[in-house]
């Protein structure tokens, strides 16, 4: 496999946090060449310690308010959903975002995993959402498309999202945490796969990379935490929205490698309180997203996202007034995105792909 | 995880072959308790040697003709597609089929893999085709559904098919074999996953198990080999048909573990001759299968398959007269199936599933 670029000048690492970032010490060999965007959650008068030698910018709530003015209302407070502010202010093509309780994991051989390098590999090689390859990623070293894979689809589609996984503490909901407090993920699955078109997945924000130019405006983490009826659904919300839009725009989403080491389970009792509305709302939200057909005229992520916001208000609004507010915040987010990321003069977005018949 | 049944009296092993079955020696510890159905391909006057101590029945072409009479025309000759005759004459609930150049593979730890045991585990635990679980099989030991997985879907759906993989010689088409003659599959991916609803996959017949009661009549391997314009698409054909029907009837298809050791690459020049029509036809066949919507009234596999046969003739017939013949053979196959497998008096098949909104 060809050597991939390291993207040093093209990728920002976004970290939401409320504490000193000592966890960066372990990541130093891998992260130090990159620029960090730290989004400080909670009390802005606290000081966040960042280990020496890292290149970073740090935004607290006062900064968010100053940068966005009244539009700051779309950025959550007291919830890791605030990380999407970092996506907004970045000027780079790629984003990697990681939680501050995530450490370097090891392969079964004992070798430390450079998670960022694997995400870059995932993002810079195509995805295959239109047909399933049973030997997993055909672009991985020593792999290919199997017999019966249509040749017209072997170029693949551009990859928008790379979703990494977690060893040790799995990303369980509060009920599962309560029922299986001691379960640890020890299974190292040596695979990257494309999530097929038309299939939703639960996207976790703990260890996640994406192409900001391809899908950035859809990576809004919603209204969570302080003053909201729900928490711990920020990344899920972004994942549902982003996947539906990737499917429409013929972009790929990969999941699997790289693993990080997730060190600490959050409190399941606190989580239950944050999640419980999400747990029953998702029974309606997921069929809603599964049934969405975006208009063909929506050829940019922004177009798609505004259409989605309207549908959220119209079809989820009746469930709870929260979804009206969320739909409005989605529109505000796009306004903020466009303000901070004005399109280049000759932008041409297109949804057409020569070999693909739309299957909606 | 609970101890699973071994299915000794409920599963037949089907082996198509043209040679002595010495490969069974290596499988003896795993296969000897089971009944084998050997389908002898080619010249019926040849004698196939079967190692001592195995319980088997063997059918050659004369037997196929005797059992099926004029309907024997639907069973391919000089092609491993003849294996489906074994599915037809079995009286068991489950089938495992394996090629005679497949040997026992080893886990990375060096432990020999009991492929049949893993297939049984796959078949006896539910599938999750309606939503993607990022930690793979939620029913595997030490695993579960991740945060954001809808609770209403966690019971899963019955599993109809378990598709196993291959270490050493990967299942490549002739062009890929020619381009990468030395590529070997050494990547042991420790995962079983459900192929999502609405997604087709290339099903390989080398290492395959299924629930005959749930999906048997769809496991027809088509018209291949002697007198036909095509070969090496027998399992692909069965896979496309079976997956579309599983999606319609809300049944699951799993792929991944177990691995077998595939010992010998077939001749790529011979394969190219067999495959070349399939390679270009599949560019039309796959969009055809991707676009199929079966009528709601089709509530049995047989109903679905007859409907599929009609669509094949109608929509693929214009590509080549072969598909007219294939559509007729599909109908003959179902007639033969019903003759040899009369439905029990009080058969009740139903397509409805309480928690699932059909998404066609």
How would you summarize what this structure contains?
The first copy, chain A, is an alpha/beta fold. Chain A has helices at 24-31, 61-68, 84-89, 115-124, 174-179, 212-215, 234-249, 268-291, 301-316, 322-340; strands at 11-17, 35-40, 55-59, 94-98, 102-103, 159-168, 192-194, 207-211, 252-262. At the A-B interface, helix 8 of A face helix 8 of B.
Chart the SSEs and their pairings:
Two copies of one chain form a homodimer.
Chain A: E1 11-17, H1 24-31, E2 35-40, E3 55-59, H2 61-68, H3 84-89, E4 94-98, E5 102-103, H4 115-124, E6 159-168, H5 174-179, E7 192-194, E8 207-211, H6 212-215, H7 234-249, E9 252-262, H8 268-291, H9 301-316, H10 322-340
Parallel strand pairs in A: 1-2, 1-4, 2-3, 6-9
Antiparallel strand pairs in A: 4-8, 5-9, 6-8, 7-9
Describe this structure in words.
Chain A has 360 residues and is of the alpha/beta class. Chain A has 10 helices and 9 strands. Chain A has helices at 24-31, 61-68, 84-89, 115-124, 174-179, 212-215, 234-249, 268-291, 301-316, 322-340; strands at 11-17, 35-40, 55-59, 94-98, 102-103, 159-168, 192-194, 207-211, 252-262. In chain A, strands 1, 2, 3, 4, 5, 6, 7, 8 and 9 form a 9-stranded mixed β-sheet that branches. The longest helix of chain A is centred in the last third of the chain and has 24 residues, at 268-291. Chain A is globular, with a radius of gyration of 20 Å. Residues 352-360 of chain A have low confidence and may be disordered. The interface between A and B is large, with 63 and 63 residues.
